[in-house]
Recover the amino acids of this structure.
């Protein structure tokens, strides 16, 4: 796991770590901000992307659960981690009144990105964004070029998470006012193309 995290840390830090805007990628062994506030759970995510406000952690933009490559064929462990990261994100989504939050699952050098949203009352939707295998040598680095559209899709979702927020707690009980253009996710029957679309918020 330590060997894989050398590559994963550099890759994820390049995507999310932004100290100039008080956003930090953190490998941590502590309870989530939401669990601390409610004193409800001792579960700990492996990684989070957190925004600070002064000297305190304010909001969480993403959670990640990581496992070494030796667990890649253990479907029970992989599903259990996915449920954990979905639970962390769901609690953060409710507590922070965001329109969406990023969920990340790392298995060895393979990183899977999701966007968790609340499009309607009590209906939490986890949208798959990208699956990216981080290269472990210079020889494999050119292969990452073909994943640039997926990387841009993840960055697009990250900007969406940072800059869109539900207007009030009432929005939790009503359909969220946002949409994603149909071209954002290619049809399974068509070849994947490089087209990237932006999230669009709708003013009430």
């Amino acid at each position: 796991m330590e060997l894989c995290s050398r590559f994963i840390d550099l890759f994820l830090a390049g995507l999310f770590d932004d100290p100039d805007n008080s956003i930090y990628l953190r490998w941590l062994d502590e309870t989530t901000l939401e669990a601390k506030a409610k004193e409800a759970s001792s579960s700990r995510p492996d990684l989070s992307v957190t925004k600070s406000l002064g000297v305190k952690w304010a909001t969480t933009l993403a959670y990640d659960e990581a496992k070494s490559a030796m667990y890649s064929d253990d479907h029970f462990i992989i599903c259990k981690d996915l449920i954990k990261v979905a639970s962390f994100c769901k609690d953060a989504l409710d507590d922070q009144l965001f329109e969406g939050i990023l969920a990340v699952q790392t298995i060895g050098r393979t990183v899977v990105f999701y966007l968790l949203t609340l499009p309607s009352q009590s209906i939490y939707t986890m949208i798959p964004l990208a699956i990216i295998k981080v290269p472990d040598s210079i020889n494999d680095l050119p292969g990452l070029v073909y994943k640039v559209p997926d990387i841009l899709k993840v960055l697009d979702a990250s900007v969406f998470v940072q800059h869109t927020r539900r207007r009030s707690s009432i929005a939790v009980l009503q359909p969220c006012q946002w949409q994603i253009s149909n071209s954002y996710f290619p049809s399974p029957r068509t070849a994947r193309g490089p087209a990237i679309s932006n999230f669009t918020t709708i003013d009430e």
About this structure: Residues 1-163 form one domain. The chain has one domain: 1-163. The chain has four helices and eight strands.
